[in-house]
Write a structure and sequence with these properties.
This protein has 220 residues and is of the alpha/beta class. It has two domains: 70 residues, no CATH class; 100 residues, 2-Layer Sandwich (Nucleotidyltransferase, domain 5). The protein contains eight helices and five strands, in the order H-H-H-E-E-E-H-E-H-E-H-H-H. The radius of gyration is 18 Å and the shape is globular. InterPro entries: DDE_dom (IPR032874), IS_Transposase (IPR052183), Transpos_IS6 (IPR047930).
Length: 220
């Protein structure tokens, strides 16, 4: 994974972790790495994040703990290149992150794509709580019809407080890192932020004593 790079794995993973954990800008991470004795350009750090995030996420999904069968599904707004995009997310009853998906626009097919992705990665839920969103309700009904499933739909807004509060953590990281200029970069950075957030919530099967050591272990 790290063969051919000028810097060792320890430096690369540390820089990538700083981006996801603290929401720093790339120039701020460059300065922080310099203080630690590693002279690395901010553009190089950005390339590391873009390249290694999918690989780390793939490994994370192999080691992630199972989630509950009663979900809370919702979406929030993320600005990319001055345009509002939609981040679909779901958590279980205990607040564990189930899945997430960034889309260019809010529509029925987007909600359906997210639901299919979440089920493929986590198994079928017994019940999904949503707000008054028609697109989410439609997506679940279509899935039930096409897969002969019986996922219950519950629409109680106050029960979705847990996922709305979870949105705030992710959005806080984004605000601090000065937003996104490209959609694909936004997708990969959000994946890393979500990954570290799940480690913080103890969703990774690991005997490591710290968040960073657990994250580092994903690199093999």
């Amino acid at each position: 994974m790290f063969k051919g790079h000028c810097f060792p794995k320890s430096i690369i993973i540390q820089a990538v972790y700083f981006k996801f954990r603290f929401g720093l800008s790339y120039r701020e991470i460059e300065e922080l790495m310099s203080i630690r004795g590693a002279k690395v350009n901010h553009a190089t750090i950005q390339r590391w994040v873009f390249k290694f995030t999918p690989l780390l996420e793939k490994e994370f999904r192999k080691r992630r703990k199972a989630v509950g069968k009663r979900w809370r599904m919702d979406e929030t707004y993320i600005k990319v290149k001055g345009k509002w995009c939609y981040l679909y997310r779901a958590v279980d009853k205990q607040g564990n992150t189930i899945d997430f998906l960034l889309t260019n626009r809010r529509k029925r097919m987007s909600a359906q794509s997210f639901l299919i992705k979440a089920i493929e990665n986590n198994g079928k839920p017994e019940l999904i709580n949503i707000d008054e969103s028609g697109s989410n309700k439609h997506a679940i009904r279509i899935y039930n019809k096409r897969s002969f499933s019986k996922i219950q739909i519950r629409q109680r807004k106050y029960l979705n407080n847990i996922v709305e509060q979870d949105h705030r953590f992710v959005k806080k990281r984004i605000v601090r890192c000065l937003g996104f200029k490209e959609f694909e970069s936004a997708k990969r950075t959000l994946s890393g932020i979500e990954m570290v957030h799940m480690i913080k919530k103890d969703q990774l099967i690991s005997n490591r004593k710290s968040m960073f050591k657990s994250f580092y272990a994903l690199a093999g």
